[in-house]
Amino acid sequence: MAQRKITVIPGDGIGPDIIDSALQILDKAGCDFEYEFADAGLAALEKHGELLPQRTLDLIEKNGVTLKGPLTTPIGKGFTSINVSLRKRFNLYANLRPVISFKGTQARYENIDIITVRENTQGMYSGLGQTVSEDGCTAEAMSLVTREGAERIVRFAYELARKENRKKVTIVHKANILKSTSGLFLDVAREISAAYPDIETAEMIVDATCMKLVMNPEEFDVIVTTNLFGDIISDLCAGLVGGLGMAPGANIGDNAALFEAVHGSAPDIAGKNLANPTSVILASIQMLEYLGMQDKAEAIRRAVTAVIEEGDRTTCDLGGTHGTTDFTQAVMERL
Length: 335
What we know:
By secondary structure, the protein is α/β, with parallel strands linked by helices. The protein has eleven helices and twelve strands.
């Protein structure tokens, strides 16, 4: 059987360091992938004069599965978010952000296990109708929600809940105020939920959701919501388990999937062997699960869990004094 090819985008800042860590661990676990490397972000702009070279797009399409480090989109007019561009280009409509408590972190909670399923291509982030008046006093943007888009993401969330033996899906909305867009999302979600009587359904307004996530996070299992709310909620959930360094992300469509560290590129610590690679290691676990390699995924998860719990070779953000390479080595020894 031919080796499975994976597109790898090392990214900017600490990206190359943490991606290297994840690849070493995948190899040690015996995943036997062939990696095809591609540039994006500032690294690509410097080398090729563009943020997203055609070769990168071609490799993402050809291999279907991509592991990606953090990218920097330059601030200023004329630069579109690279992550948004990739989601639209490959119709990666489902954004999956799981958070799980790890013993040994400095998180405030102990038993968190929540997946946020966020619609990834529509809503306020659709980029439509963005105008600023000539006098600079009025700005407008358009939110787009379609029945097809809402159906697709809600069904995805319920199918995920069923596959992972989860008991509850919470539909998060703001239909009391955004009666058209959020109202349509809620109506469609209610219709879809009726087809899943084995799974408990809850409905919650987004502001109440944020409050309850802080007060009683144990109430939540799977959350499904629109793009803007999902962006905010998934970061809030990351805060429950110790921050963005502990949270991976998957962007999934019908023909492609992209797995990533969800934190920034942290240029201030790039190349200093300080970065915590956990986020991208967890993203690689998501990738293995997507590919049906559950045994390898579980082995790596157990190793990471043990190293963080023991705490004697962790990075500074986890309360330790070690660097990226020591942490990586500790995980590989566990494997």
